[in-house]
Amino acid sequence: MRILPFVMLLLLVSCNQSEPAEQKEDTGPTVIGYEMNDEKNPVDIVAGDLASTEVVKAFFDAYNEADLETVLSMEHDDVMFYTPTGAVIEGNKTHYEMGKAFFEANENPKWNIKWSMSGNVNFESKESENWVTSGVDMSFGPDTARTTVSRVVDLMIVEGKVKKGYIYQREPAESEK
Question: Is residue 143 included in any domain, yes or no?
Fold first, then answer.
């Protein structure tokens, strides 16, 4: 019988209707960070267009299908990539050729997006920029001995295509494998 008071209390609490939370007035875009401009002053980064994250997802999906023609079509002709080694890849044709060589040299490469977010940098003196920053695990090699690296990939999206990219890379710790 000791359980009966507990059950009654549980029913009372679960049936209690609380007042809905007060809605805050929309005050504009949500500031999620900042970037330092050329004058060393902070410029707001606000939550960006989620459609841009879909562009990035489609970009990596094309890589996972080894569909370099689609990757090529998703890049501006003058795309620039800054790699973890310090190399700069200039132009989508150069990127296409490097992609072909990578697929020929590495067995079964895969890109697995772990997270992705879109942000707009709202400059005062030039046009705003949309960037999608994603955590990506990239792996390759035979299933019995795959090599995996963790990357942060920062892609500028302009008119639904990749315009510029910065790729940062590290080896995952044993506890992450």
Answer: yes
| Count of structural domains, the chain | 1
Task: Identify which of 157, 169, 171 has the alpha carbon closest to the alpha carbon of residue 74.
Answer: 157
Tokens 């989620």 correspond to what residue? 50
Q: What DSSP string runs through 144-169? A: TS-EEEEEEEEEEEETTEEEEEEEEE
- Domain with 92 in it: what CATH number? 3.10.450.50
pLDDT tens-digit map of 23-69: 566 677 899 999 998 889 999 999 999 999 999 999 999 999 999 99
Q: What's the domain range around 140?
A: 29-176
Q: How far apart (Å, rounded) are the C-alpha atoms in residues 138 and 14?
A: 46
Query: Tell me: the pLDDT tens digits for 77-116?
Result: 999 999 999 999 999 999 999 999 999 999 999 999 999 9
The answer to the question of residue 39 being in a domain is: yes
- How many other β-carbons are positioned within 10 Å of the β-carbon of residue 97? 13
